[in-house]
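Discussion board: Methods & Data

I've been asked by a reviewer to show the raw model output for two of the constructs in my manuscript, not just the figures. I'm not sure how much to include, so I'm pasting the format here to get opinions. Each protein appears as its amino acid sequence followed by a line of discrete structure tokens. Is this the kind of thing reviewers expect to see in a supplement, or should I convert it first? Here is construct A:
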Amino acid sequence: MHPRPSPIAASLYTLRDLNVDVVIMHGPHGCCFRTGRLLEGDGVRVLTTAMAENDFIFGASEKLEETLKKANEMFHPKLVGIVGTCASMIIGEDLKEAAQNVDIDAVVLPVESHGGFGEGDNTEGAIAVLEVASEYDVISKEEAGRQIEMLKLATEIEKTRGMAQGDYIKPNFGDSKEKIAKLIIEKIKEGKNVAFVLNAKKETAYLFSDVLNVDYSSILNNPSSDNKSNKPMIIANLDENIGLPRIRDHAKNIKKCLSSENIAIDYITGGLDEYPVSPRKCEEFLKNKDVDLVIVAGVPHALKIEDLDVESIAITDGPRLVEPLRNLGYNHVVAELDAHSKTLGTEKIVDSDFGVMLRTAIEWEKND
């Protein structure tokens, strides 16, 4: 009942993850403008054909061809994506024909998605890109198939455990970050076993991995010992050998940042695009460990916290996910805001509000 991300935006982000140079949106100039502007910060040039009222009646294939020519002259791209919108797709514009009519060296991917594409799920737009990318040999059919399977599982998770369950969910900004930070620090000081789980997707991992990038040595029971029995455990979906090119780079970059701070990952559950299935490995791993507190950051509703007999904290980027996470069994929920906008264009871990709060609370403990 409440607004959800559209297939058009998902198409744009997936083209970005394929490292396209230019995206042309075939529709009105205001269509998905915020996503387009954000992607400029990630190095993608986003253009529009700026369809107007007459174009809705008579068509705008010439506008698309002219925009494609202009993009080629301005940016000399190697890979271009053309994304349909509600306006162009409803009147039946042929994106493929327009691309064929323009003689340029770049590979052009015509993606016929729109706001109500398929079942209207945002993942439908990403699937459309993957299918076209496979058809044009930008990625293999096997990789496209694996990606599509992950996206379908992600949709199922959102519809059964997330904010796409059908009913209206009132936004909620979660528990006090100061209170939860103090809770984590108290557990560590008491010698309890604490596990941080990163189960994030795409570039948002740069923000959610900030909670892993914290030095707890000053509050450990025996900070001078090399064998810190209550040092927090780190579990993460940061396999750098899985996913589209940009996604693999995100995992490499985050691991490099953590390594530079001498922070080791104890167990890797999968890649950043495997967030719908990587929790299964995490759950099995945790069941064999004596853990008192689990903190899950990124897409915590993909992990079956109800199957783990442990105190738990979820860190999410969706105010509308706070109540569903509590209903799943999380004892505490922390909400981060604007994860996408804070992480576009970066190659390093960025400060999260909760990560900053954790570091601040540790300084308070040191100064007491």
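Construct B, same format:
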Amino acid sequence: MFIVLYLVTSIIAGDFYKVPITVAFMISSIYAIAISGGLPLAKRITTYSRGASTDNMMLMLWIFVLAGAFANSAKQMGSIDATVNATLSILPGNMLLAGLFLAACFISLSIGTSVGTIVALAPIAAGLAHSTGSDVALMTAVVVGGSFFGDNLSFISDTTVAATTTQGCKMSDKFRVNSFIVMPAAAVILVVYIFLGADIPSPTNIPPVNWVKVIPYIIVLITAVFGMNVMAVLTIGLALTGIIGIVDGSYDIYSWFGAMGDGILSMGELIIITMMAGGLLEIIRENGGIDYIIQKMIVHINGKRGAELTIGILVGLIDICTANNTVAIITVGGIAKQIGDRYGVDNRKCASILDTVSCCFQGLIPYGAQLLMAAGLAKLNPIQILPYLYYPLCIGIATLISILARYPKRYC
């Protein structure tokens, strides 16, 4: 019901953002409760509520709250602008494409959002393309590709939170597995960009860098990589934004509170979607739906490779239908966990497959928020950017290779 309702109405409207995804989930939830026969209505609602409030779901929500507060307070303090200027200021000479890709990778890894990275860098990329006579579509695609590096790996990314909580593994462990898969892909693309951009000059007249404002992102990255609890990491980052922002004069304590509040509110739709998806999946599970899906799918599964391929195909298909990689992971996560457990797939590898494949497809669909945003900022058609999206395609190939070659071995 959800996929048909959301996909069909979006196609009819010609816009995947015409129909609020929360409405599609609400109608699907009402439908699921209504058709669950044999139980009193109150019991069905209780089942739905239980699914919406499991330990994993609530942990995900608390992380979303902290991540929203941290991201917006850092943004209001000027951390994003400082990070953009810092990365642009250290670009190597005559390596504009490679440098821009590295900038997008670092910024997205810091702020945990592909859309935010695109908003920050796409106008700069378009301006650089015009000033150097380069292909605007290629330059914009470099930013889009790099934005998915952090979307896939960042500890404060929605996709990372969803993938790790649904599979029950630590973010630092998932980061290590994911790094083995995507770092070689990133290195290959970096080399490609070095050759493609060898004759393009680097930017000049970059604003002065306020390195102090980059500190919260750096501390969050370092503490998260060393395995600190993600909620503690985000709390430390949040405290740093307040201390630095108030001392620096970027805002007073009330403005800081306001920035945190706006950041929490910005996560509202995602929180609602997460809870409704959890409730919906619990209704499906209670009625034997998930077991039915798994039974139908495992007919074609032969061992761990088949299980991992099936998980990747599932999350890819749902992402195509919903144009939202976080929603795709949340929707498929429960089924993926059961398939993975049944065939002995490592939870960390499963989380990495969910995240990487969803980012691959999200980076290639022309109706996704990322490509639409990039095209709008660069004044292009999304189809013009598609032929140059090397990184999303490369991480999809890298994931397929990791499944077929049972790589990395220690997690297989």
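Answer (T.O., handling editor elsewhere):
This is acceptable in a supplement if you add a one-line summary per construct. For B, something like: The CA atoms of residues 71 and 111 lie 6 Å apart.
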